[in-house]
């Protein structure tokens, strides 16, 4: 990409313009999705601003509570959650919301209901706020059958039923990555315009990558296939170069790098967390949706990740996300273990 030339571009593809273009291709569309997305984008801009000012505004201190996962909540977590809940409810296009920070799902007042349910992690990686590592918001969108008689079952659907998913990363720049089912596009916030401008059109993950991303501190508790795969990354027997280890510990940042550069991101099950650590609805599903839309794969160790059917809103799952060929290698290792038992 020629950044010097881009600096003088006058035909700017904003995220709003992009979504309106998509909408115009669907004559039956009423514009509800566009309105919903504009409220999500507004929430991301607000959180981006709050994250940038966190140190100054003393928002970093602990809020003194723990969330439903038993993690200490930072004040920014609480603020971000409130911002997104209010933005989504006020859009008038949602009927049920599931947030990582709330134990129960939020059912929107019938007078404000629309046909979408949104699952989201308002501030993923918030334990990294203090040291300036990139953090982000993750979201997924489903459509409900009957907004007037909505039940929790409307949310407990397989990820393959998702209409759209995305994340916003608050780092050296504020980057919004979105898929509504026809490819993946990346937008960067131009602070002078207050607009997200398309900077990464039609993201395609390389078929094979040179990076693996995993918390090796958990290695002693891994299962056989995971241990074998990581060993293969470090000591390849086919004469190829070893893969590089890159692990940030902030899912949005790790997945963003994986999408752009290829490779694999692993958060496997282990003896301490037999069901894995990442939450299905608002971490595993949206990232798996994006990965598949970019030409990669998402695997749980047993099945395609998007075919999972959660039984509770905070269910967890192991996950392997990344380049198509790399995930094929992991699948082969799990298949070999099954055939040997």
Automatic annotation (TrEMBL):
Q: Mind telling me which CDD domains this protein's record contains?
A: FBPase (cd00354)
Q: Which GO terms describe its cellular component?
A: cytosol
Keywords from UniProt, A to Z, are: Carbohydrate metabolism, Cytoplasm, Hydrolase, Magnesium, Metal-binding
MF GO annotations = fructose 1,6-bisphosphate 1-phosphatase activity; metal ion binding
Which superkingdom does the taxonomy of this entry point to? Eukaryota
A Gene Ontology annotation in the biological process aspect, one of them, is: fructose metabolic process
Give the catalytic activity: beta-D-fructose 1,6-bisphosphate + H2O = beta-D-fructose 6-phosphate + phosphate
Recorded hits in PROSITE patterns, A to Z, give:
FBPASE (PS00124)
Which EC number(s) does UniProt give? 3.1.3.11
Q: Where is the Fructose-1-6-bisphosphatase class I N-terminal domain?
A: 13-201
Q: Which residues form the Fructose-1-6-bisphosphatase class 1 C-terminal domain?
A: 205-334
SUPFAM superfamilies associated with the record:
Carbohydrate phosphatase (SSF56655)
Compartments annotated for it: namely: Cytoplasm
Q: Which cofactor does it need?
A: Mg(2+)
The main location is cytoplasm
PANTHER family attached here?
A: FRUCTOSE-1,6-BISPHOSPHATASE, CYTOSOLIC, FRUCTOSE-1,6-BISPHOSPHATASE-RELATED
The UniProt similarity line reads:
Belongs to the FBPase class 1 family.
| Protein name (Swiss-Prot/TrEMBL) | Fructose-1,6-bisphosphatase, cytosolic
Q: Which organism is it from?
A: Acorus gramineus (Dwarf sweet flag)
| Taxonomic lineage from the root | Eukaryota, Viridiplantae, Streptophyta, Embryophyta, Tracheophyta
């Amino acid at each position: 990409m020629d950044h010097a030339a881009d600096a003088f571009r006058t035909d700017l593809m904003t995220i709003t313009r992009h979504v309106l273009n998509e909408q115009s291709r669907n004559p039956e569309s009423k514009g509800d999705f566009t309105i919903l997305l504009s409220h999500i984008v507004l929430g991301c801009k607000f959180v981006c601003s709050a994250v940038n000012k966190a140190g100054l505004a003393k928002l970093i201190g602990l809020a003194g509570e723990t969330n439903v996962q038993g993690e200490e909540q930072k004040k920014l977590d609480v603020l971000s959650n409130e911002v997104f809940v209010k933005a989504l409810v006020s859009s008038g296009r949602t009927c049920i919301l599931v947030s990582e920070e709330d134990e129960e799902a939020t059912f929107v007042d019938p007078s404000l209901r629309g046909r979408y349910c949104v699952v989201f992690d308002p501030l993923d990686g918030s334990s990294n706020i203090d040291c300036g590592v990139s953090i982000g918001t993750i979201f997924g969108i489903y459509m409900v059958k009957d907004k007037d008689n909505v039940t929790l079952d409307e949310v407990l659907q397989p990820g393959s039923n998702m209409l759209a998913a995305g994340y916003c990363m608050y780092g050296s720049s504020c980057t919004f990555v979105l898929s509504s089912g026809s490819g993946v596009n990346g937008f960067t916030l131009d602070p002078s315009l207050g607009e997200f401008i398309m900077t990464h059109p039609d993201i395609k993950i390389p078929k094979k990558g040179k990076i693996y991303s995993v918390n090796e501190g958990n290695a002693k508790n891994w299962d056989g296939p995971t241990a074998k795969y990581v060993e293969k990354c470090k000591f390849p027997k086919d004469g190829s170069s070893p893969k590089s280890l890159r692990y940030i510990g902030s899912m949005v940042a790790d997945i963003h790098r994986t999408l752009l550069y290829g490779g694999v991101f692993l958060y496997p099950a282990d003896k301490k967390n037999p069901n894995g650590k990442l939450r299905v609805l608002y971490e595993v599903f949206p990232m798996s949706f994006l990965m598949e839309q970019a030409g990669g794969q998402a695997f749980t160790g047993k099945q395609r990740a998007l075919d999972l059917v959660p039984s509770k809103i905070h269910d967890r799952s192991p996950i392997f996300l990344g380049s198509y060929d790399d995930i094929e290698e992991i699948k082969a290792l799990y298949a070999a273990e099954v055939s040997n038992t």
